[in-house]
């Protein structure tokens, strides 16, 4: 729980590899870091992170901080892109709805909408790579939701409905306190800690149907070493924000679980001969 390392779909286990249809390995898209290329973007408003422009709040949807993106090709697009949108597995909140048997989920942008978002932000990404970028984008969101559910199961009660993602916001220019801490640790002990900052950050607001309570989750996205077969790797650090006493308790409990697990892996409590110590009869 917390930070998990992943590579492109399928997103069913912590360590995965890309499907045969994924062109990532044979494309010119970078193998680490943000899947959006920023090196030729003199008019970009940010050096990395989510390709959606979050600055014009008066034109954005308040639930996802995204503009209403068109499905029509725009300059300098030179190849056609699919306009079909993919449904995610992430349940959403529909305000004002009563009990319904229909489970509504968030919908990912189409490759055409995603490309339009890149152009809108001033990021120079070849249109032929956009489908691959969208595949990675969707995969990371599914992985992030899986990590959120691990946290939510710790506080769920029998009979609870599944939590829902009420809204979210990309915050690529704002480093979280935890990310700043690890950056400092990397500066002090570069041989032990990573010195690269996260390439993106999201804040997700999750609503619990039992009482309507909303909990904020912070997600830091890091690049990670490639897998043995050459697929790019990503690390997600997902945790509830320290906005409540319950979230603080969760963070402390999970931290202690990690400490005990590490001690068990190192053989704590075993004899020098490798066996468990037992009292003599």
List the helices and strands and how they pair.
Layout: E1 3-6, E2 60-61, E3 66-67, E4 87-91, E5 105-107, H1 111-121, H2 130-153, E6 164-170, H3 177-188, E7 200-208, E8 213-224, E9 233-240, H4 245-265
Antiparallel strand pairs: 1-9, 2-3, 4-5, 6-7, 7-8, 8-9
Key terms:
281 residues; alpha+beta; five-stranded antiparallel beta sheet; two-stranded antiparallel sheet; 4 helices; 9 strands; 24% helix; globular; disordered C terminus
What does this structure look like?
With 281 residues, this protein is an alpha+beta fold. Helix content is 24%, strand content 19%. It contains four helices and nine strands, in the order E-E-E-E-E-H-H-E-H-E-E-E-H. The chain has a five-stranded antiparallel β-sheet. Strands 2-3 form a two-stranded antiparallel sheet.
Short note summarizing the structure:
With 281 residues, the chain is α+β, with helices and mostly antiparallel strands. It contains four helices and nine strands, in the order E-E-E-E-E-H-H-E-H-E-E-E-H.
> What is the percent of helical residues?
10-25%
Termini separation comes to: 41 Å
Main sheet properties = 5 strands, antiparallel
Q: What is the ordering of alpha helices and beta strands?
A: EEEEEHHEHEEEH
Low-confidence spans: pLDDT under 50, at least 5 residues?
Answer: 7-58, 271-281
Rg calc? 21 Å
Strand content: 15-25%
**Strand order across the biggest sheet?**
1-9-8-7-6
Average residue pLDDT: 76
Task: Give the structural class.
Answer: alpha+beta
- Count of DSSP strands: 9
Total helix count?
A: 4
Question: Which term fits the overall shape?
Answer: globular
